[in-house]
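I would like you to help me understand the sequence and structure tokens below and explain how sequence relates to structure.
___
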Amino acid sequence: MHILIIDGQGGGVGSRLVQSVRETFPEITVTAVGTNALATQAMMKAGAQRAATGENAVIVGCRTADVIIGPVGIAIADSLWGEITPAMALAVGQSAATRILLPMNLCSIYIAGAGKTTTAQLIGDCLEKLREIIAEKG
């Protein structure tokens, strides 16, 4: 199973996701793609086995991923303060992968109903969904 975690800015959410997925599912290979070098570096430090940076890395990674995980902004062009290009958002949106998107109310995006959930709670929910997907795909 190929898990792709995408993040931008400082990579804080992505690094927490990488660490949590690696601890919960140590047998799964995690590829991290940052929209910038700082985000990629943070996810590598958190334990991603493979990593790359930039628009083309997002596009290529989305082609082969079974599951894509990241903040909801990875699917919205010009989000994360402009770091998500239209091509990146299109790649995430058109991927055949299952997408687990964290409803983060940041960067001029407001997700109605998301409430004041903490990042830790969102990651916990993400891990539960990933557990279901892994069980289904065997």
